[in-house]
């Protein structure tokens, strides 16, 4: 990676990929950032939540200009393929170049938002870049709750303008985002032992789906492995001898589930009927999703007889509740054509010790609709689950089309590339809404290089786009 251009950015990103940084476990990357600040003689401070702020004075001629904050989050989504051996708590990310793309081997790359961190660090340590007084704010736990931004203390930021470096689209300026909230449901049960004579045990697996970001990719027609699996289970739950031993699918609340599986039993004499039913279902699923999910794979395999099962009535209620639970786009924006307004993600289903846990996330740029879809999900899951809780949530970021920083950022792009950047809002969550609550005077925009497949092992970062975004950031800072 040290051979890639711009070297000042990719050399730092190369170091970042070697530092483990799962959400809620940012100890190592936070310490690495402090060491970076010390090494480059930068003023810095940290808080109890391990957020890090670095500061550099204005360069000559910029002393009287309003200060600027460059902001990125230090944590990454940790997703890997089932056949990939990787310990996100200890192992470095294994990267490789494929044409114009930087990729990781079987895991997420962490370009979201490691490349934002790298650009901010490259900017604040550049010996030639001219800029006003600069702060770099690096937050923790953006991916699983925005807790770093939420716990940021009042008064620690001095700048009046902020450039968020957590966007993933080349040549686009984001000036607004959706708010979000999580809904977590649990179904407690006492595992049952049953007579298994005359029963056949099988594992149904759904895999090969694209997955992706539950905000950016929710409107792209991708399959959700949990929904694909449950739809089939609903079809076979009335087979004689049907029992559910376990169900597991998806992983992170902000990623669309790529893989799911369930272990079931049916009557031994229903084996052929089960396979015929699955073959018919596969044909239907491929007809519906095949144009998008070209690698989708649904399989049935014989397994050893499980020792314990979910009680029959609870299993039936769970399957129906998951089938009824909404997933995907709920409504489109009336103000910005093409923008998703409201959505929900059936993120994960996990069989744990004595309960099954269902994790979902809801997003909307309209606060009342965010709570409406939260309640809709709660109603669906309440048919099976005895414990339902909601996260604190986070606010959206209302667009400011009259932003002076937007004007400077837009003109910088036009000067460099002789084209007009798109100005948009994003359905994904950004930390900007939380910053605005604490610092209502902040003028903010969000930019970033082209990334595809974030929050999945298909994540890739465009090398050429990173170069353009770096030029754009530098020219914007010099134009302030």
Walk me through this protein's architecture.
It is a single chain. With 480 residues, the protein is α+β, with helices and mostly antiparallel strands. It has eleven helices and 21 strands. The chain has a six-stranded mixed sheet with strand order 1-2-6-3-7-19. It has a five-stranded antiparallel sheet with strand order 14-15-16-9-17, with helices on one face. The radius of gyration is 24 Å and the shape is elongated.
Distance from first to last alpha carbon: 31 Å
CATH topology of the largest domain: Aminopeptidase
CATH architectural category of the largest domain: 3-Layer(aba) Sandwich
Tell me the CATH superfamily of the largest domain. Answer: Zn peptidases
Strand order of the largest sheet: 1-2-6-3-7-19
Mean pLDDT: 96
Overall tally of domains: 2
Specify the CATH class of the largest domain. Answer: Alpha Beta
Radius of gyration: 24 Å
Number of helices: 11
- Note poorly predicted spans: none
């Amino acid at each position: 990676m040290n051979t890639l251009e711009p070297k000042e950015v990719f050399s730092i990103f190369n170091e970042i990929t070697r530092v483990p940084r799962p959400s809620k476990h940012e100890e190592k990357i936070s310490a690495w950032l402090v060491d970076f600040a010390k090494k480059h003689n930068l003023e810095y401070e940290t808080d109890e939540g391990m957020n890090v702020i670095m500061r550099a004075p204005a360069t000559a001629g910029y002393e009287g200009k309003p200060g600027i904050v460059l902001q990125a989050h230090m944590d990454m989504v940790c997703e890997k393929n089932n056949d990939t051996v990787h310990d996100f708590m200890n192992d470095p990310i294994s990267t490789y170049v494929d044409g114009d793309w930087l990729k990781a081997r079987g895991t997420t790359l962490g370009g979201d938002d490691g490349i934002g961190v790298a650009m901010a660090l490259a900017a604040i340590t550049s010996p030639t870049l001219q800029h006003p007084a600069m702060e770099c704010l690096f937050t923790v736990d953006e991916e699983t709750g925005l807790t770093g931004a939420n716990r940021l203390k009042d008064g620690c930021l001095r700048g009046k303008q902020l450039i968020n470096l957590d966007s993933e689209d080349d040549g686009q300026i984001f000036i607004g985002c959706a708010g979000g909230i999580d809904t977590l449901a649990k179904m407690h049960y006492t595992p049952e032992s049953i007579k298994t004579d005359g029963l056949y045990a099988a594992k149904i697996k759904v895999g090969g789906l694209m997955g992706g970001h539950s905000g950016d990719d929710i409107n792209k027609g991708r399959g959700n492995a949990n929904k694909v699996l449950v739809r089939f289970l609903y079809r076979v739950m009335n087979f004689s001898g049907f029992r559910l031993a376990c169900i597991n699918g998806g992983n992170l609340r902000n990623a669309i589930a790529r893989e799911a599986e369930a272990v079931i039993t049916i009557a031994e004499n229903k084996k052929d009927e089960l396979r015929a039913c699955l073959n018919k279902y596969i044909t239907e699923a491929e007809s519906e999703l095949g144009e998008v999910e070209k690698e989708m794979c649904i399989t049935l395999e014989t397994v050893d007889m499980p020792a314990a099962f979910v009680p029959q009535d609870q299993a039936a209620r769970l399957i129906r509740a998951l089938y009824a639970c909404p997933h995907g786009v709920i409504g489109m924006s009336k103000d910005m054509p093409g923008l998703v307004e409201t959505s929900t993600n059936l993120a994960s289903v996990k069989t744990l010790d004595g309960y099954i846990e269902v994790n979902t996330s809801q997003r909307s740029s309209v606060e009342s609709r965010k709570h409406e879809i939260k309640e809709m999900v709660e109603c669906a899951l309440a048919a099976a689950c005895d414990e339902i809780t909601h996260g604190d949530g986070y606010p959206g970021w209302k667009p400011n089309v009259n932003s002076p920083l937007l004007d400077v950022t837009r003109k910088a792009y036009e000067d460099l590339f002789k084209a007009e950047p798109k100005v948009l809002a994003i359905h994904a969550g950004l930390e900007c809404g939380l910053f605005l609550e604490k610092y209502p005077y902040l003028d903010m925009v969000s930019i970033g290089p082209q990334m595809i497949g974030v929050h999945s092992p298909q994540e890739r970062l465009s090398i050429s786009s990173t170069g353009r975004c770096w030029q754009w950031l530098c020219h914007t800072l010099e134009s302030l």
